[in-house]
Amino acid sequence: MRILGIESSCDETAAAVVEDGRFILSNVIASSVKEHQAFGGVVPEIASRQHLISMIPVLDEAISGCGGLDAVDAIAVTAGPGLVGSLLVGLMTAKTLAWITGKPLVGVHHLEAHLQSAFVGWPDRPPPDPEYPQLALLVSGGHTLLFHVTAPRQRTLLGASRDDAVGEAYDKAAKILGLGYPGGRIIDELAAGGDLKRYPLPVGLRHSPDLDTSFSGLKTALSQLVARLGDETIDRDLAHICAGFQHAVVTALIEKMEKALGQVPVRQIVIAGGVAANSRLREACTDLAARHGLSCILPPRSLCTDNAAMVAAAGMLAVEAGEFSGLELNAFASSTLSRRGGNLSLCPQ
Ligand SMILES: Nc1ncnc2c1ncn2[C@@H]1O[C@H](COP(=O)(O)OP(=O)(O)OP(=O)(O)O)[C@@H](O)[C@H]1O
Ligand SMILES: [Mg+2]
Fold it and tell me: Distance between CA 238 and CA 220 in Å, rounded?
């Protein structure tokens, strides 16, 4: 089955065609990140207007190389969570296509799509197979969630950030250090040349008995460090400061994952979301899995940040479960994910 995926929840306009939820036939992304850079973060109205400009060319490119719309069996689209004005552009595009072609429409939860990104492969390399139970860490610009996954789409939320999401913490840290937006990749690259012990920073909720994380204290500690050091030292020691920040973030995540491994049965570790592109986190997860004799699935870096291949892959899960959407499908801004459960299907919204 061939699914066209459409993604427009934030600042990436994306379309992709995926076979059987696993094999990418096309994957096109237009980012409006440059338009937001001067503001230090995403400006919702600019994002919506850029989606309007980019959507048709992106869609055209995604479908033209693989047989056009006729070769597509269903249309999957991100319905939320995200910026509502942005989501509506993707939703109206998908609904219009479904209406004129009579093909089934599938609404997708953006976080379910991120979690699927680990299992979508490229034509030249077979996609990895999921093994259950899994410990799945979703670390993105808006979310930090640790799940126990016992079967496809059967998840329990084990822990979450009590304040800033990890990606948000990276972006705020980059702003404090005057490094530009988005900050995650810049800090990751700078940290590679730094000494992580030179400027130790606090690991949030290290001693709490639960599996939650916290990153706002780290941001405050970084601000205080920057104020104390002054511009000249910051310029000289930027790589060391970035390494210290990254070490605190990755330690916080890995310690809680290790604690989770002592509480629930796990065969496979999976990470997803924009921060899953982080080199230190990828190494640390690989080490953690090796120490516990588990397999570890890291999505290709290009599929960590927002893309439509993951939306098509998650759409396949919904198709298999018979969960189709009507043309009344609407956008939603935030996730109803709660401590009681990790249900990411669109039904309870
Ligand atoms: N190499 C990296 N290291 C750390 N963070 C990174 C890296 N690359 C990207 N990021 C961070 O990933 C985030 C973007 O990820 P993503 O696109 O998944 O988030 P989002 O879609 O905005 O949020 P959500 O999926 O929660 O709605 C940004 O905060 C960015 O700084
Ligand atoms: Mg995202």
Answer: 17
